Amino acid sequence: MKVAVVDIKGKETGREANLSDAVFGIEPNDHAVYLDVKQYLANQRQGTHKAKERAEITGSTRKIKKQKGTGTARAGSIKSGIFKGGGRMFGPRPRNYGFKLNKNLKRLARKSVLSQKAKNNEIVVVEDFNFDAPKTKNLIEVLKGLGADNKKSLIVLGDSNKNVYLSSRNLKTSEVITISELSTYKILNAKKVVLLEGALEGIETNLSK
């Protein structure tokens, strides 16, 4: 698949980038995408929730009323979960929500969403650019030129670029990442995926293994 390479103003440079069919032209696997997104979101959870159970409550251990003859249910401790101030029954405990997925499935998921984006014309290939200094205004101008200023956008760099990255931190709808940070969730969450020329080879190399 051939895509026109544009400059930061959105004008065609006269060159074309060849998007590999092995990465950008496969039949999407929805279940692989689901599992990869589920794992990404699960890994965001801290899992630090905790409620005190009966054994952790401070209180008297005496039997609060006699066993028989009260006409009500027997009760042995004020720390029981049925009383106000008692422990939480089956409460949350700290845990890790993460789970493992094999590398081939994760690659398949990334290729699936990239192929879907390419099919929907939501991928733009831009020639490599840089800023002299971190400035949000400069990146806004670039996004306007690419028609992505009012959309959620994901800019993928070939190598880390401090000035471009810092220019994006004040923008709620735009994110700048490198190839190593590319994930199924981030691609899926963006309405426009902006790939720098320098990132294409690395993406295809990583996902064609």
Automatic annotation (TrEMBL):
The UniProt keywords, alphabetically, are: Ribonucleoprotein, Ribosomal protein, RNA-binding, rRNA-binding
Checking InterPro entries in the record gives:
Ribosomal_uL4, Ribosomal_uL4-like, Ribosomal_uL4_dom_sf
The superkingdom of the source organism is Bacteria
Q: Which GO terms describe its molecular function?
A: rRNA binding; structural constituent of ribosome
Q: Which Pfam families match?
A: Ribosomal_L4
For this record, the Gene Ontology CC terms, alphabetical, are: ribonucleoprotein complex; ribosome
Q: Which GO terms describe its biological process?
A: translation
Segments of this protein annotated with the region Disordered = 45-71
As for family, the record states: Belongs to the universal ribosomal protein uL4 family.
Q: What does this protein do?
A: Forms part of the polypeptide exit tunnel.
Question: What PANTHER family does UniProt report for this protein, alphabetically?
Answer: 50S RIBOSOMAL PROTEIN L4, LARGE RIBOSOMAL SUBUNIT PROTEIN UL4M
Assembly with partners or alone? Part of the 50S ribosomal subunit.
Q: What is this protein called?
A: Large ribosomal subunit protein uL4
- Please report the organism this UniProt entry assigns to the protein: Mesonia algae
